[in-house]
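User: Good morning. I'm curious how NAP would be positioned relative to this chain. Could you predict the structure with it bound?
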Amino acid sequence: MLASCEMSVGTTSRGRRLRVAVVGAGPAGYYTTDYLLRQRALPDVSIEVDLFERLPSPHGLVRSGVAPDHQSIKKVTKAFDRITSDPRARYFGNVSVGTDLTHAELMQHYDQVVYTTGAATDRRLGIEGEDLAGSHAATAFVGWYNGHPDFAEQRFDLSTARAVVVGLGNVAMDVARVLIQLPAGLASTDISDDALEALRASQVREVVLLGRRGAAEAAFNPREIQDIDELEGVVLSIDQPEATLALDPAAFSGDARKNVEFLQAVARRSDREAPRRVRLRFLSSPVALEGASKVERVKLERNRLVEREGRVSAVGTGDYEVMKAGLVFRSIGYFGTPLSGVPFDDAQGVICNCHGRVTETPGGPVVPRLYAAGWIKRGPVGLIGTNKTDAKDTVDQMLADLESGSRHNASPPEAVTKLLNDRGVRVISQADWHLLDELEVAAGTKRGKVREKFSNVASMLRALDAIRP
Ligand code: NAP
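Assistant: Good morning! Here's the predicted structure, ligand included:
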């Protein structure tokens, strides 16, 4: 057995062809592919990458997570498509690892395997009433308005005047912004038609953003909260502003300081009126969602802050309040899901790894030839660009291990294609994706939108059949 985070030294790997499977075509998968193809550390090694994706469409959270009113961020997909246009890369869309191909088969057919599957599910609050109708994961709402096939059938009852969003991260900002802004601002984006229609009919006029800690501990970026303040017809206010005003901005640095300065300016200004409002409520935790058959009220507990081992934590005061609300979104972070045959740390929701080298247990021995990058490696934190350094970290380990000789005879490229073909798996190639992309853009243009996404896998496959019977 190998010591944790160190690979065995074996035969040299120079002068050979390395075949790598990358599983998950989101930002981490693309940056991993890019670093592998651009590597110069081992000039005699020629690397080929097969990028697998469960959906026919690639781009992960850039397509289905980034909010539709943040189109400039989505432009990175052009760079992603360039990466897989390299002749040494192949895109295998609509291939589910674990079902269409097992983990063991990947390990057999490739020299190295990297999981970049992200964090597919959400954290739960664990409070009474959390499963009432009207209580949702923010991730489901985000997937729905972004036209993700897994959430196409979701329905959100927007006939309530007040929605509560729990958590103060950037996802909470996206959800609040999409819920409260005038729908006209979203009409020309790639938001799904269903979501646009529902938002046009929405009765939501107030969003309460609940933070369990204070203004200085908010997880949002300064730009994200300022964007909400700048929305037309929307006023941003702070409930019980005394605690925010009592903070000394000089006691903080970086984003925390910028947030405190901005939020104090919001707290100081005289109460403005607008048809729509976003209320920030700090130092409050939901302790129960109440209602006969659907959410009607949120029971809140007021918190105070305590500092323990350098971290400021929220502690309940026993002071409760009930707030009327017909819709609640928990936006308290994503969580990774295990993959059959791959060691998983259930507590952290990540693949057990050390700098991207998969380990049998947390801190345990290394599993040769197996790696992870992105959120499934480090947890659901960071912006799209964070995945660049993270992917480089993993690729550095992969190249070092190759240099030190972990040898395996990968199958020729045709073997996997044949296996999938024999199983009747309809593989979506890079060329197929380009066709789907063109169809989506054309459908969007007809509606005056950036694109109209296919809302389910069957409609993507039918559209391709219609072009290439
Ligand atoms: P996040 O940044 O980790 O924020 C999670 C929020 O939930 C925090 O405010 C956290 O409060 C709160 N929370 C956690 N557990 C809670 C509980 N039990 N009760 C109440 N509140 C709780 O997660 P995220 O918003 O899902 O974002 C994930 C990553 O994607 C982040 O790195 C984010 O920056 C990034 N992202 C970026 C953008 C953008 O740049 N536009 C957009 C979306 C996402 P505490 O701080 O008290 O733990």
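The first strand starts at residue 17 and ends at 23. Residues 125, 166-172, 174, 211-213, 217, 219, 221, 224, 285, 331-334, 380-383 surround NAP (CB under 6 Å).
Let me know if you'd like a different ligand tried.
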